[in-house]
Every structure is written in C-alpha cells, then in structure tokens.
Write a structure and sequence with these properties.
Double Stranded RNA Binding Domain; DNA polymerase, domain 1; hpI Integrase, Chain A; 3 domains; five-stranded mixed sheet; 46% helix
Length: 444
C-alpha cells in the first residue's frame, strides 16, 4: 500500500485508530467528500482535520483534541461559512463556552515569560473574579453585544470605576483575539465590539492627590522620618526627584548607580517599556544617595540592592505599597509622586519631549542622535532646575550636612563613587557615550 494513498471510509475515532496501524496518508469521508483526515508523519496516533471546498484546502483542527464526533458536528457550519466567504477559515474547536477560551488564555498567559508578574496578577484577578464567574458558562454561539452588556458590562459599571471595567474588558478582548490569531477559533465573536459600545462616558485620568503645594510638607515629613524609616523615605524621594516608576525604583541596584559620573542606569528588564533608561543624578541626588548608603552600612547592610527585601531579593511590590501606605496614610499613592514631578517640570518650562523622556514613556519616531546626545544634556538641566526648586522647599535638609554612619564608614563614599559603569560608557556596551566637548551635552 502506497504511503500517499487516500482511503475512503466512514470516518470515526475507531476508523482513525484502526488505520493508524497501516500506511495510508489520509482518510476521506464517504458522507462528506469535503472532509479529510491526515495522519501525522511523526506520530500516527495524532493528525489533522482538513476541509476541501471548491478545491481550496483549509485546516480545521488537530486530532485527538478535536475528535471525529465534534468535527462532523461542526462541518456544516464550516461549509456554510466558506460558501459565504471564499477566504473564511475552516477552523473548528472543542471549545463550547467562553469559559473554555478564558481557561486556555489563563494558562497561556501564566507561561508567557514576556509578561511581568504584575501584569499576570492583574489579568488573573480579572479572569478569576469577574470574567469567568460572569461569562464562563456563556456558549460561544451566544456571544453578542447584548449578552456581554447584560452579564458583564452593566453590572460592573454599577460597582466599579470605569477605568477598572475597561481593564477587565481588555482581558476578555485580548483572549479572543489571541485565540483567533492562532486559529484556535474560526471567528472572533467580539471582533466588531468596542468598549465604547457599552460605556459612552469619557474616562478621565484620576486627579492627582498630591499637589505642588503639598511638597514642602512632604519633604519635612521625610526629613523627620529618614533616619528611622530610611527605605520608605528614600523610595519616595527617588520617585519625587526623578519621576521614576515604583517598579523601576524598588529594583534599583548600586552597581547601576554611578555617583561620580552622576548617572542612574535602569536595565530594560526593570522598565515598563522594556527599554533601558538612563537618568542624570544631580549633586543633590548624589549626596542623598551617599547619605542613604552610609545609613544602610551603619545598619549592617552592604549588599547590592538599594531597597532589599526578603531572601536577598529586591523589595516586593506588596511591601513597597505597605511602605507608602504607612507614609501617606492613604492620602496619596506612589504614582502621585510621579505626577507631581511631571507637573513641576512643565511649570519650570521643561520641553514636553524631555519630560516624556525623563518619565520613560514609550515614544515613536524620535531621532536617535537627538536622544543620545542633546536630550541627555536637557534631561540633566531639567532635573537640576527641579532639585534646586526642591531645595527651596526643604530638600536640602535631607542631603546636606553630616549624617549617621558617615564618619564610621568613610570607605562607603569612595566605593560608591566607583560603582557601576565607567564615566565613558554604561553596561549597554557603550551605546550611550559621554560627549564632553559637544554643545548641549551637559555633564553627559
């Protein structure tokens, strides 16, 4: 029997298993001439379903994930779909409910190394607490604008902020899009739906709970508590001084802080945008960091982390949030520090693009030469102006003078001066050079 031979049989799971012991390449169904089953060339206990319509082949799915009974049951719908649209897919699936799609997406997301732990936790919460309980039993054939509105959107908007409702809807939408992209679904029943179909109210950014007028009081509080709670205070100060994100800041390592060159390097893996980020360190920031490092040493810590957590790991997100809760008493969040810095830069006349670069926002079509030369000098001058303003509001009380541990650990200052990368390049292997003799390069 030829290995390319096609057998015409009444296809069933039993027939597939029986002919697996032979050498036939494929089976053709006696009742539905469009249906083909092709054995895998590496494992004949497995195979793939194909539908041939008007001489055009289309893969419908894999066996045994889709058994013969399921395939035969969905074949009429596939043929109707392809009759209406010559380019329609033949894909079928064993999934019957929205819950099946969500379970698949949850597993895939958990094993996706490209997603941060925070992103996974957020999506998992949306799936487990909202999407699966509200839509899990809904049949795929019944997914419609009316059903999603009735079971998910309208009940949620009564209880939760619209920004949160939108994030939950986003997880649902992404799960269906990804399944269709991988041809695990024949169609996406949500393809034509948008969040604004359900909610017409414009979602406005949350107002900042920390304003410029609050900064002097905040700096006074941090000055009082710095020696007692250095980690929480320093975390807040780094974010206030540089507009950095909480995740970027709590993961900071001393080897990426160069106090002599005045530069803080944030690796791509630590940033939200997955792009490496460099922030200038002003004289005030360097003095503050020296004070903090001396205080760490006085307390017995000389490890690699600015904000150590448990088990030699960086401070965890939950512990960082606890520190801010204790510091702010619920009146503001860590993100409000980033907002107040951004507002202050605008008031100081900092160029919009420079502000965006300092915040490490994802940007498009920026000239690389501008970013790596002129913009670095502008970033430094922006932070120098900001820290001078902070000095007038009480910041100098935190970084000036002699502090605990400074005399007992003089080597710390010298060691930190030589930490991290050299003054001519950083760990990205020299891609950002210092341009001492070029106009606009500043200290970079």
């Amino acid at each position: 029997m030829s290995g390319s031979k096609t057998l015409t049989v009444t296809i069933s799971d039993a027939e597939i298993r029986r002919h697996a012991a032979g050498t036939a390449r494929q089976l053709r169904d006696t009742r539905h001439r469009e249906l083909r089953f092709r054995y895998s060339t590496t494992d004949r206990s497995r195979g793939a379903w194909h539908v041939v319509f008007r001489q055009r082949w289309g893969k419908a799915g894999d066996y045994p994930g889709i058994n013969a009974k399921t395939m035969l049951a969905t074949l009429p719908a596939i043929l109707a779909r392809r009759a209406a649209d010559a380019h329609a897919k033949s894909t079928t699936t064993s999934w019957t409910t929205v819950g099946d799609v969500l379970a698949w997406y949850r597993d895939r997301m958990n094993r996706d190394r490209g997603l941060s732990a925070k992103r996974k936790a957020s999506a998992k919460s949306a799936l487990d607490r909202h999407l699966v309980p509200r839509l899990g039993e809904l049949l795929l054939g019944e997914v419609s604008k009316q059903m999603i509105d009735q079971h998910l959107m309208w009940p949620m908007q009564e209880r939760y902020a619209l920004s949160f409702v939108r994030s939950v809807y986003g997880v649902l939408s992404v799960s269906f899009r990804q399944a269709l992209r991988l041809e695990l679904l024949p169609t996406n029943p949500m393809a034509a739906l948008k969040f604004t179909d359900f909610v017409r109210t414009r979602i406005r950014p949350k107002p900042a709970r920390l304003r410029g007028d609050d900064v002097p009081g905040l700096l006074g509080l941090l000055a009082e508590r710095f020696e007692v709670e250095p980690a929480g205070c320093m975390l807040a100060l780094m974010m206030l001084c540089h507009g950095s994100r909480l995740g970027e800041t709590r993961l900071a390592r001393w080897r990426n802080v160069n106090l002599e060159a005045g530069r803080w390097f944030i690796p791509a893996g630590d940033t939200k945008t997955k792009a490496e980020h460099t922030l200038p360190l002003t004289n005030q920031a360097c003095a503050l960091l020296r004070r903090y490092q001396c205080l760490q040493a006085a307390r017995g810590y000389t490890g690699p982390l600015l904000f150590p957590g448990s088990h030699s790991a960086p401070l965890s997100p939950s512990k960082a949030n606890t520190l801010f809760t204790d510091l702010a008493k619920g009146e503001w969040s860590s993100h409000d520090l980033r907002k107040v810095a951004r507002t202050a830069w605008t008031d100081l006349g900092v160029d919009y693009m420079v502000g965006e670069l300092l915040l490490n926002h994802a940007m498009k079509d920026l000239d690389a030469t501008y970013i790596h030369t002129t913009a670095e000098g502008l970033k430094r001058r922006a932070l120098e102006a900001w820290h001078q303003q902070l000095d007038q509001q009480g910041f100098n009380a935190l970084h000036a003078g002699t502090f605990t541990g400074q005399k007992n650990h003089p080597a710390i200052v010298g060691a930190s001066n030589n930490a991290g990368f050299s003054t001519s390049q950083h760990p990205s292997q020299g891609r950002m050079q210092i341009h001492e003799n070029k106009p606009g390069a500043g200290h970079e």
